[in-house]
Model the fold of this input.
Amino acid sequence: MRSLASPARRPITHPNRSWLAGLLAAGVLLDALLIWTAPAERTLGHVVKLVFFHGALIRSCTLGFLAAGLLALTWLVRRQTALMCWLTALQRVTALIWLLYLLSSTAVTYLAWGELIAWGEPRVRSTIYATILLAAALVTAESVPAPDVRALANLVLAAGAVYLIGSTGVIRHPLNPIGTSPSADIRLSYVGIVLVTVLCHAFAAGLLYHSPPPRRS
Done:
C-alpha cells in the first residue's frame, strides 16, 4: 500500500512535462506583453500597469486559497492520493505567487503614495495578517508529515485569507478603481491580465504536480 506520509509525491509519473512548461512560459510572456501594452491612466500614468499586475496577483492568490481549501475538504472526505498531491502543489505555488504579490504591493505603494508600507491603510494590515497566516499554515504543513494536518491547515488558511482579503475596508486605497473606470480599454486590459495570470498560476501548479519527487540520499 502506498504511504501518504509524504504528500508532495504524486501518484503517477507523467511522461512529458514539456507542454506544461511551454504553456507557462508562453503565459508569462503574454502577461508581460499585456502589461507593457496596457493603457496609461490620467492620475497614475504608466504606474497603473503595475497596479494591473498587483490586482491580478491578489485575485489569483484568492482563487488559489479557495481552490486549496476545496481540495482539502474533498481530501478529508474521499482520501485520494491525487487530491493531496494537487493540494500540495497548489499550496506551494500560491505561496510563491503571494510573495510576488507582496513585492508588487511594496512597489505600488511607494510609486503611488511615496512610502514602502502604508501602515495606516487597513488593506495593508490585512495583507500582513494574511501573510502571517499563510506562513503558519505552510510551516505546519511542511513540518508535520501528515496529510490530515496539511488539509486542515489549508482549510483554516482558505477561510482566514479570503475573509481578510474580502472584508477589509479602505482609507486611501481605491475600492474598485479599475472596475469603475470609464475607460473600456483599461477594464479590458485588466481582465486580460487577470485571466492570463490565473492561467499561469494553474500551469505552474500542474508543472509542480507532475514533477518527480526529490531523490533521498
